[in-house]
Amino acid sequence: VGTIRAARERAAEGDCDLLISDLGLPDGDGHMLMADLHQTYGLPGIALSGYGMEHDIARSRESGFFAHLTKPVDIRALESAIAAAPEAAFTR
After folding, report:
1. Residue 29, domain extent
2. Average pLDDT over residues 68-78
3. Is 19 in a helix, a strand, or coil?
4. CATH number at residue 87
């Protein structure tokens, strides 16, 4: 999905195990989306961002993302983060 609204609808349907989201979305902020979906549904999340300073990563973690990947995203890093998602869902 490509919007916050669509992501919320998909999560409400119970058809979502993991959120992989850019932080800049057409209809809002990926941090807000993650905080909402993590609190409401316990979803783990992976943030994708053009920013990768320590404070950017810390903000992503505070929002509920368990991983923060900087663009351009290394496919191996993304695969590793996805593989860690089931464990992340139980440790948050």
Report:
1. 4-91
2. 98
3. strand
4. 3.40.50.2300
DSSP, residue by residue, 28-45: EEHHHHHHHHHHHH---E
Q: Report pLDDT digits (tens) over 12-62.
A: 999 889 999 999 999 999 999 999 999 999 999 999 999 999 999 999 999
Residue 86, classed as helix, strand or coil, is helix
| Residue found by looking up tokens 């959120």 in the block | 19
Number of structural domains in the chain: 1
Rounded to two decimals, the pTM is: 0.91
Peptide bond into 72 cis (omega under 30): yes
Q: How far is CA 65 from CA 25, 41, 84, in A?
A: 16, 13, 12
CB 15 within 8 A of CB 21: no
